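agent> step 3/5: call structure_predict on target 'Ion-translocating oxidoreductase complex subunit D' (Dasania phycosphaerae).
agent> reason: downstream docking stage needs a structural representation; sequence fetched in step 2, passing through unchanged.
tool.input:
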Amino acid sequence: MSLLNVSSPHAHRPLSTATVMQLVLLATLPGIAALSLFFGWGTLLNLAIAIPLALLFEACVLKLRQRPLAFYLGDYSAVVTAVLLAIALPPHSPIWLVAIGIGFAIIIAKHLYGGLGYNPFNPAMVAYVVLLISFPVEMTQWAAPLSLIDSGAIDGHTMATPLDVLKNNNSELVADLFAHNPGFGRWAGLGWEWVNLSFLAGGCFLLYKRVFTWHAPVAMLSSLAFCSLFFYDGGSSASKGSPLFHLLSGATMFGAFFIITDPVTSAVSNRGRLVYGALIGLLLFVIRAWGNYPDALAFAVLLMNFAAPFIDYYTQPRTYGHKAKQPPSKEESH
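tool.output (status=ok):
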């Protein structure tokens, strides 16, 4: 009797790479719509620049590597990288900033390591960190909510994010900070609450489609919520922020469902994903509270990308049919 030779992971209904990437792109639409609604068309402009550039850089590198263009361009991986980076960048970013980021993500962070499936670090986050370190002024000029601009509550079109305002606060109670700062909403930043909820909705859609498992996102959000609750002092001038503030501010939900779930750069086993996600949540809070960057998702993700093989080594599931290793008995030790 001949046996069917099927490689792991033995999925009953495996999704192709192109299908997975298309589902990810579809899931980003609610978040993109919320960003455009509250912060203007800047994110759409970023996308209009980033996607063609990503395809161009991808095609050029594939040509140099003598790989078939249609096959590799058709997996949508370059488009997903472009979309994730365009969302992470401030709206209305300069064309040259987007071009440098996309070029670094595709050429250096992806193809220098061998292309899709071989890159140890998330390409979009590598590019984001390079841009943040190299061009801090352009990377920290986030667009102000449209409602504040239209009402004349602020003079400029850019402003510090609520995470940045809270981090640099040393005189006002959190309640007063919310009352006196027009950029704050009910629970977190004005507009940021709905942006995070929109990315949460997109992430739940991906979970429903079984694009990834719940382990890493839930572990990250639970760890972030626990750390912020543990260090929350009720809202003094030295407060690090409430759990709800951290969960609905910055790139929290975007990172939890669209960045740390990258199957190439994250841990493999379910237990490993729990550890991986929990440590990202811990690092995210630590850097937000005591580091130099208000929203340090990219740094937390890259640090754990580096540690993912180590996590996999110690969280490998027991081979089917084998018992867990037991310590030697006293008789065996003599």
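agent> step 4/5: record observation. Residues 161-313 form one domain.
agent> proceeding.
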